[in-house]
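Run folding on both entries below.
>entry_1
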Amino acid sequence: MGLGLPEVFLLLVVLGIGVLGTAFWIWMLIDCATKESSEGNERLVWVVIVVFTHIIGAAIYFFVRRPQRIAQFGR
């Protein structure tokens, strides 16, 4: 009982999504840690949110905070 072609394809798709999700998470974590304002605790709060909520926190940071930061500070 080996893996058939559909199972191998599904496995590759799931692994690909996992790798892309992890790469996105790391990108947002680095972006937050290096470019977020160090005034107050904003940087620490966003890093904690991204670390503990993984892909959901990274998506929230990407769609909510990152555009605000770019508009406010230009980076």
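>entry_2
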Amino acid sequence: MTAPVMVDERDRPEETWQDPSRGSIRWKTLLSGDVTASEKLVCGIAIMDAGETFALHSHPDPELYFGLEGEVDVHINGTVHRLKPGIALFIPGNAVHGVIHADQPVRWFYTFAANAFADIAYTFA
């Protein structure tokens, strides 16, 4: 068992994909075993400005999005779900999902039941 970990989002750097075909989404990792003394949970804040994208992708692990600011359409297996503040969106494992186009700035909390972000096996369409 690990000790409690407290992370201030303001202290975390923004990250992005090195491959632009994955989209222009940015994020701040809050908990991940490779950067914090934590286990069995990965979470962070996803950040998109108007006009940005998050390419359709899948991963074996289920994921949860929780809307914090702004609104955006999240495509999951061909169905559009509007994410907005206060909405929790469960994404089943292996579901193809992403944000084709953000029409306004948006931020959401995301989480996986995994030890580290690097353990999430992304497959991009």
